[in-house]
Design a protein that fits this description.
This protein has nine helices and eight strands. The chain has 292 residues and is of the alpha/beta class. The chain has a six-stranded mixed sheet with strand order 5-4-1-2-3-8. Strand 6 and strand 7 form a beta hairpin. The longest helix is centred in the middle third of the chain and has 23 residues. 40% of the residues are buried.
Length: 292
């Protein structure tokens, strides 16, 4: 069985000219084989202990360290600060991606570039994004001959219910189940006890959002959300992230992966990785492992 862990990054605030509002809204899904969940959780705790030991509890039970979350938003803030903090954040993010690579986890998601001064329909974007993620997850389950479940980071109960209902209507429609390999409606979980949700937050907020901000918004947005230091995230991690995507080819076109909707610059989804291709030799030379 496969588990799709989903988290969102950004917000639905209108992007006002001259303001420091996040210009990106992203919904990111990390797909994990349930048989590797114990290893993933153990390795994730080890990473936390290695990189953020001072933040963790000192109680007798190591598993309590899952309760201390290292948020992706905090990591991207560290990237903007001193060189020491930047390196610490990048090393942690690198090890997270290496960990996902080690268990052959896959990443899919929808990334939305905000149009300045244009209000967003947050519920519609949320609903559409989760439906799309379920569709891509269904495709991946078909390819693997597996069944799966979807676990989404719990947010607003009212929004959660509407999003889940949109999947319900597609699973039980008269014409047939669109997601017959997904066992039930999405489950909304508290991230403090899900390593998968915490990792999805790290990928969404700590990697995808800052990369997208630089790639799609730097020419029309100013402020911390398009900080030049975020280029380091793409340099270090973009190529690994690109290869972790689940994509499939159909009727001559590539589908899935991280799909970016950019009504401002009309740049394609591959533009998300524009720096990573040039930086590939540097990435290949980076040290790997927890202790370096």
């Amino acid at each position: 069985m496969l588990i799709a862990y989903v988290d969102d990054a950004g917000d639905v605030q209108t992007l006002k000219s001259g303001s420091n509002i996040q210009p990106i809204l992203a919904f990111v899904c990390v797909i994990v084989d349930q048989s590797k969940l114990a290893k993933l959780t153990e390795d994730f705790l080890t990473l936390k202990e290695h990189h953020f030991r001072g933040r963790l509890t000192t109680g007798p039970h190591r598993l309590g360290n899952i309760l201390t979350e290292i948020k992706g938003a905090e990591l991207r803030t560290m990237v903007r600060e001193s060189s020491r903090k930047r390196r610490s954040a990048l090393l942690y993010l690198r090890d997270i991606m290496n960990m996902l690579e080690g268990i052959d986890a896959r990443v899919i998601g929808r990334v939305w570039v905000k149009v300045p001064d244009e209000p967003l329909d947050g519920l519609a974007m949320n609903t559409y994004s989760i439906q799309w993620i379920c569709e891509m997850f269904q495709r991946y389950l078909e390819k693997k001959g597996e069944r799966g479940i979807v676990v989404i980071d719990s947010n607003n109960p009212g929004v959660n219910a509407r999003v889940s209902h949109s999947i319900f209507t597609q699973k039980f429609q008269y014409s047939g189940d669109c997601y017959d390999r997904i066992l039930d409606m999405p489950t909304f979980g508290g991230s403090q006890n899900h390593a998968g949700l915490q990792i999805a937050d790290t990928v969404a907020s700590g990697i995808v959002v800052p990369m997208a901000g630089r790639s799609y918004c730097a020419d029309h947005v100013e402020g911390s959300h398009v900080h030049e230091s975020y280029d380091k995230i793409s340099d270090w991690l973009g190529e690994t992230l690109r290869h972790r995507q689940y994509r499939y080819r159909e009727e001559g076109s590539w589908n899935g992966g991280l799909v970016v909707s950019d009504p401002v610059g009309r740049k394609h989804s591959g533009h998300l990785f524009k720096r990573s291709v040039a930086a590939a030799p540097t990435i290949a030379s980076l040290a790997t492992g927890f202790g370096r």
